[in-house]
Amino acid sequence: GAIQDAKVATVPGSAFNAPGYARISYAASEERLREAVERLAEHDYI
Question: For residues 8 and 26, is the Cβ–Cβ distance under 8 A?
């Protein structure tokens, strides 16, 4: 999963009544968020 591959923790959207989606926390600096998105993209999660 994303946490093992991209080192980004996600929560299944189904926990928020949105199956088929994932949720990430925005409680980080803009730079860290950009890095996380890049890693998710590198591993084909987005």
Answer: no
